[in-house]
Structures are given as structure tokens and as C-alpha cells.
Write a structure and sequence with these properties.
The protein is α/β, with parallel strands linked by helices and 465 residues long. The protein is built from 16 helices and 18 strands. Helix 6 runs parallel beside helix 8, helix 13 packs parallel to helix 15 and helix 13 runs parallel beside helix 16.
Length: 465
Amino acid sequence: MKKTLFDKVWDAHVVEQVDGGPNALYIDRHFIHEVTSPVAFGGLEKRGLKVFRPEKTTATPDHNIPTINQHLPIADQLSQNQVDTLTANCEKHGINLYGLNHKWNGIVHVIGPELGLTTPGMTIVCGDSHTSTHGAFGAIAFGIGTSEVEMVLASQCILQPKPKKMLITVNGDLKPGVTSKDIVLYIISKISTSGGTGHFIEFAGDTIEKLSMEARMTICNMSIECGARGGMIAPDETTFEYVKDREFSPQGEEWDKAVAYWKTLKTDEGAVFDTEYHYDAADIEPMITYGTNPGMGMKVTETVPTGEELKGNDKVSFDKSLDYMGLEGGKAIEGKAIDYVFVGSCTNGRIEDLRSFAQFVKGKKKAEDVVAWIVPGSKQVEKQAIEEGLVTILEEAGFVMRQPGCSACLAMNDDKVPAGKYAVSTSNRNFEGRQGPGARTMLASPLVAAAAAITGKITDPRDLL
């Protein structure tokens, strides 16, 4: 029987098939953080259970830690309590914790790949929806709820129905100034925020194959924004080169055995998908969102849609979204004044993202009226940015790099965009209030964010390249 990449990884991890129900799926790697784990540990306590395989779980605080003065106690008492609780739970159960100021601390979906904890063919879960990021390595990775976090801690397994399979193929060469963030925003704008519901997506095609691992992570990170359970990309030489010699990667003979297996992780010719989409890279341009979900995306050079083809509740929802954003259908978005720029998150907080932003702003100056938060995704990214001189370039252009954390992606710390202000953000969600009550978020690539930071308005980055 011909199998897809997804089938191969899923089927290899099925411990038991519940008759007429879900699969009991073994989990290779469990990531936890300070927000969704306390209640799960509390559930274990009530049942008198221990963590079944603590060596398979890795912890880091990231969601609501501050991005300045991390050497000081956290001012917000709730945040400090959550971080302290994570620390206590990890100590009690023997779980590896990379706490605040640890050299490996960072956003959970950034540190997993950079430490070699994420490798092809794994099943990976975390109490965070953007666990799909790890699918870039040919892993099945998805977010889970608090009760499921407890389930994995207790048994190293999870009950899951097997999703349907979707193939999204992108072929051709990307135009200058077009990035992986533009690819995924383009795809979501085409299939909508519900187009992937019930599916696991495999991204394929020569456009995808040419991307770096960090660019692939951006695409898989946002696969859930079209409603999919997760996304994945078949491992190849680019994958192997990235994983090799990292802290927890297989070594010696184990490495050779691992690569031999990883090379089998590709969709068989003739394997059938439930749904397929095909796109031409030539049609993709720098993108930006105009509404209040990631599917409301458009090319920077286009006019805001009017939604006149919509009816009923869809039209009401569309109009409500434009009203919240203070935008008018039929008008250009290019030239719209903005107030904030956020570069970071598990979507675009890696070293390549900081490099592209720094290279773009080099020799230029930040617009005076723009507040910019440049937030590395981990302590290792922060260290590399300093060593490569990126921080110096940023400072000369009027920017300051903050310390690692999720930051303004979900505004659980003090990095909140004020009500009514416009933020061009490299994060993954633009829901109402996502970056602060009343904040107006426009999702974009690091290049579009850089162009906005320099000009103070929505600008096609190609005009400045």
C-alpha cells in the first residue's frame, strides 16, 4: 500500500487502535511551558501519579516572561508565580528545565530545533497550538490541551483520531523580496482559515525544497492558521545538515542509522491525499493582513477587499473586522501609517529573520514615530545576533534588541500594543486584542516589517531593496 509521509510517521507510533475510536499514539518528545502545564501537574498530584518518562519532556518558560531586565524578579506576580510553579514541578519530577537566563532558554518552538531535540520522524506535542512548527523536520507535531498534557505526562501516549491528509504544492522561483512568510500568508488567503480543517498538511514542491530549515519552520508554524491539525515537510539533505552535530542530535553510528531511516520518510509515488492544492511561486508577492484573522491577507500592492461578494453572517463578520481595523474596502493599504513594529515569535524570531531585518535596515534610520520591538526567539539567537554584529547594525539604525520571549505575539507580558494603534507584526495571529486590548495587528514578513519601520507606513519592501 502506498503511504504518504504522514501515514509513515503516524502508523509507526500507533500503540493501539481503539475499536471505532481514536488511536493511542506514542509521543517521542513533549515540550511544556509555564502557562499550560500547572493544571496538568495538579491533575497528576490529585491522582497520585508521577511523570511516566520525564526524560522525554523538556520545559522552558517563554509565554509571559519579560523581554527586558530578565536578571530581575518578574514584576507581574501572576507571571512570576507561573514560572516558579514550572520550576518546582520540573524539580519534583526530574524534568529538564531551561529556565529564565539559562543559556538554552527561549521560545519552546525555537529551542527544540536548535538543540537537536526535534528530529525527523518524531511525534511531538506541546500545550501550545504552534507546535506545528516542528513539522518542518518531517515530524508529526501538534498542539494539545491541558488535559492532554496531563495524559502525556502520565503515559507518554495520547488518544487522537487520525486526521485526513492534504497536499499543498508550490513550484517555481520566488521573486526578490518574497519570503516563506509570504508563501504561507498567500496560501491561507486562498484556502481560508477553515480550509485545512480536519487535515494534516504536507507542503511540497521545488519552491519548498529550496527553502532553508528556518523558512520551512515559518510555513509549518502557520499551518494551523488555515484550520489544519499541523503541517509537515519531507526531510532531505537540508534537514540533515541542520540537525547534524546539535546538542542532542544522534551521534556516531546512531547518526548514520538515523539518517538511513530519515531518508525513507517521504511520500510514496502514487500515494493518495484527501485534498490537494497547487500554487505557482510566481504569483506570490509580499503579503500583509488587513483584517482580524490570518486568512484576511492581501498583496501589499493591492487594495483592501470590499467583501461585496459576501452575504449574511460572512458579510457582517467582514464589515466588523474592517471596522475594528479602521480600514475601508477598495482603498490601498500601501502608505497606511503605522505605530509599532514587532519582529519575533516562534514564527519569525530566528537568526535568519534577524539577519534579513538587520540587512534591510543597515545604513537607514528607524522612523521617529515608530516603536519597534526586536525580540530574539532564544538566548542562542540573542548570542548569535551579538556575535554577528547584527545588534550593532540595529542600534546604528535606531533599534534596540530586547531579550528572548514570546513578547508581543500574544501580549502576556508588558509588550502590549495600545488600543487603536497599528502594529506590523511578524507573529502568527491578528485576532482582535491579540497584541493588547484594541490593538490593530497586521501580519507580515520581516522584510515588510523592516520597510514599515523605516518609512513609518506600509511599504512594499521591494521599493527599498
